[in-house]
Amino acid sequence: MTELLIDNLAKTYEPGTARAVHAVVDASLQVPPGERVVITGPSGGGKTTLLMLISGLLKPTGGTIRIAGRDLAGVRPDKRNLAVVFQHDALYPHLSARKHLELSLRGAGVGRREMPGRIALIAERLGITECLARRPSALSGGQRRRVALARAMVRPADLVLLDEPLVGVDDEMSGQIRQALLEHWAQHPTTVLITTHDPVTAADLGHRSLSMLGGKLG
Questions:
Q1: Residue 209 pLDDT exceeds 80
Q2: What are the C-alpha distances in Å from 193 to residues 7, 47, 102, 107, 113?
Q3: In terms of Cα–Cα distance, which of 77, 80, 82, 100 is closest to 148?
Q4: Helix H segments across the chain?
Q5: pLDDT at 88 > cutoff 90
Q6: How far apart are CA 203 and CA 38, in angstroms?
Q7: Is 215 left (phi over 0), alpha (psi -120 to 50) or beta?
Q8: What are phi and psi of 56, to 5 degrees?
Q9: Dihedral sign, CA of 79, 85, 87, 92?
Q10: What 3-state class would DSSP assign to 134?
Q11: Which end of the chain has less Cβ packing within 10 Å, N or C?
């Protein structure tokens, strides 16, 4: 488990022009090891941009991001040891669900002998065992979402980032996935940052909730 520390993080598009958009404004946040923090707020408030900055997919205009005391400035996304799920599942169309999980494990340095046990456990927990041999085109929307979550959960990571993790999932399945996530984190505690519009998801999954509006975290 590791600590996430964000200090005065900012992201401005087209800075210094009349078209400047302040997507994230001087955001500061400390997430101690093992804590799960939920960020709520309306669309366009900066939640996804914040996660993209932490993941390294966007470069900040200012401020710092540290995980386990390491400054992530200039560190490539694939070198940050994060488990990330964004709103779009981003599954490779030519890979089976099992191959997606294996790829995630290889990226985390997990040995081939350890992979089958990890995959079987997380697949059973999320109810996708029967889907492992299928490609994304043969999966329902809910199944694709669970595969994307499994891809993140199966790997050991310093930090988990979940952007609207239950988007597009019906109420019954949403409850099952929340329970699966909680069971997983009870056995494998980790530091987690979640964004959601759903108050039930926020109440169930988070130790602490914050709001984000107009790029400001509070």
A1: yes
A2: 16, 10, 24, 21, 30
A3: 100
A4: 47-55, 97-107, 115-126, 141-153, 171-187, 199-205
A5: no
A6: 9
A7: left
A8: 95, 5
A9: positive
A10: coil
A11: C
The two three-digit tokens of residue 56, written as one number: 């390294």
Tell me how far CA of residue 214 lies from CA of 58, 104, 208, in angstroms. 18, 34, 20
b/e string for 107-134 if b means 16 or more Cβ within 10 A?
A: eeebeeeebeebbeebbebbbbeebbeb
What is the rounded CA–CA span in Å between residue 195 and residue 212?
A: 10
Distant-in-sequence, close-in-space partners of 116: CB < 8 Å, separation ≥ 6: none
- For residue 216, the cross-strand partners are 213
Q: Report which residue type is found at 64.
A: T
Mean pLDDT value of segment 13-20:
89
3-state secondary structure of 62: strand
pLDDT tens-digit map of 148-195: 999 999 999 999 999 999 988 888 889 999 999 999 999 999 999 999
Query: Residue 14 burial (CB < 10 Å; 0-12/13-18/19+)?
Result: exposed
